[in-house]
C-alpha cells in the first residue's frame, strides 16, 4: 500500500550526525521498470490499480497530497504487492495555499501532472493525484506515457489533443486569466475516443480512465468512488481499506528552513520514531507472551 519505515540509523548525538539511513522493506522492482520489459495482463492492471487507489485513499484520508505519483514511485515485489513511495513533494491538502514552488520544472514528472497544476499556482486539490493515477492506468494499458510533453505548452497540447477542447464551464475553473485566455485562443479540438487509443482494453477500465482523466478537477472522480468502480469490483472491500486515524498537519512547510534547523528537526523526529518503534516491539512481545501462556 505505502512503503513503511522499518528503522532509522544515525549517529548517537546531533553533533556527530552527518548521515541518516532509512531502512525500508525490500521491493525488487518498480512499475516503470516493469513496463519497460513486458506487457501487463488485464488482471495485473486491475490488481495494481486497486493497490494504488487503496494506498491513495489512506494518503488522502490523512489530508495529504502525494503530488508525484508516477510508475517509478510505485514499488513492486515478486508477489505483485505494490507500495507507493517518495513523498518528497507531498504537502498538506490546502486549496488556498500558494504552491508556486512546486511549479519548478521536473522533466520526469511533468507527464503525470494535472492540467490545473500548470494553469494555476493555487486552488488545486486531491484530484491532482487522481489525474496522475489516470495517466498511470493509461500507461499500463499501452506501455507508453499518454501525455509525453517536452515542455509546459507541449504538455497542455498533448492533453487537449486527447481530451479535446475544454468547455466554457471547464475554462471557468481556471483562476489564471492568461492561462484561460490562451486556452480560449486555441482552435477547437474534438475528443479522441478511448477505445481508439486502447482498442484491446477492458471497457470498464476505459470507463474508469475517462472519469480519472477529466479536465475539470471538480468533475474528476474521487478516490473512494474510483475504488467502488465496477472495474475493481473483485477487490473492492471498504472494510479492508485503511484510513488515517487523524489528519496530518504541519505548522509550516519545510522547504526554506536553514540547514541546522532541518538537522535538529530530523534528529528530533528520529527520537520520536525510535520511541514508537520500541513501544510497538514491547506491545508485540507482550501479546506473544500472553498467547504463549
TrEMBL record:
Key words of the record: ATP-binding, Kinase, Nucleotide-binding, Phosphoprotein, Serine/threonine-protein kinase, Transferase
Molecular function, one GO term: MAP kinase activity
EC number: 2.7.11.24
Pfam families reported in the protein's UniProt record: Pkinase
PROSITE patterns in UniProt: PROTEIN_KINASE_DOM, PROTEIN_KINASE_ST
UniProt domain Protein kinase: residue ranges: 1-232
Source domain of life: Eukaryota
Cofactor: Mg(2+)
Enzyme class label: transferase
Protein family: Belongs to the protein kinase superfamily. CMGC Ser/Thr protein kinase family. MAP kinase subfamily.
Listed name of the protein: mitogen-activated protein kinase
Species name: Photinus pyralis
Lineage, top ranks: Eukaryota, Metazoa, Ecdysozoa, Arthropoda, Hexapoda
Amino acid at each position: 500500500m505505502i512503503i513503511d519505515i522499518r528503522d532509522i540509523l544515525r549517529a548517537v548525538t546531533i553533533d556527530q550526525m552527518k548521515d541518516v539511513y532509512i531502512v525500508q522493506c525490500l521491493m525488487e522492482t518498480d512499475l516503470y521498470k516493469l513496463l519497460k520489459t513486458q506487457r501487463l495482463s488485464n488482471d495485473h492492471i486491475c490488481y495494481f490499480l486497486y493497490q494504488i487507489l487503496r494506498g491513495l485513499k489512506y494518503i488522502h484520508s490523512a489530508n495529504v497530497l502525494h503530488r508525484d505519483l508516477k510508475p517509478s514511485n510505485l514499488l513492486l515485489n515478486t508477489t505483485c504487492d505494490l507500495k507507493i513511495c517518495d513523498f518528497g513533494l507531498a504537502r498538506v491538502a490546502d486549496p488556498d495555499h500558494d504552491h508556486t514552488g512546486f511549479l519548478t520544472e521536473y522533466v520526469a514528472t511533468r507527464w503525470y501532472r494535472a492540467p490545473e497544476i500548470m494553469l494555476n499556482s493555487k486552488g488545486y486539490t486531491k484530484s491532482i493525484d487522481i489525474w496522475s493515477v489516470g495517466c498511470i492506468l493509461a500507461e499500463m494499458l499501452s506501455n507508453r506515457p499518454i501525455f509525453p510533453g517536452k515542455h509546459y505548452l507541449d504538455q497542455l497540447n498533448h492533453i487537449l489533443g486527447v481530451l479535446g477542447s475544454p468547455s466554457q464551464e471547464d475554462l471557468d475553473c481556471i483562476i489564471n486569466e492568461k492561462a484561460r485566455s490562451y486556452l480560449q485562443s486555441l482552435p477547437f479540438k474534438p475528443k479522441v475516443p478511448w477505445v481508439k487509443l486502447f482498442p484491446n482494453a477492458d471497457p470498464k477500465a476505459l470507463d474508469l480512465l475517462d472519469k480519472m482523466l477529466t479536465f475539470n478537477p471538480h468533475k474528476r472522480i474521487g478516490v473512494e468512488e474510483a475504488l467502488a468502480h465496477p472495474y475493481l469490483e473483485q477487490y473492492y472491500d471498504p472494510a479492508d481499506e485503511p484510513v488515517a486515524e487523524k489528519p496530518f498537519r504541519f505548522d509550516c512547510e519545510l522547504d526554506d528552513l536553514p540547514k541546522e534547523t532541518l538537522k535538529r528537526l530530523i534528529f528530533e523526529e528520529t527520537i520520536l520514531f525510535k520511541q514508537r518503534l520500541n513501544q510497538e516491539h514491547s506491545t508485540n512481545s507482550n501479546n506473544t507472551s500472553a498467547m504463549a501462556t
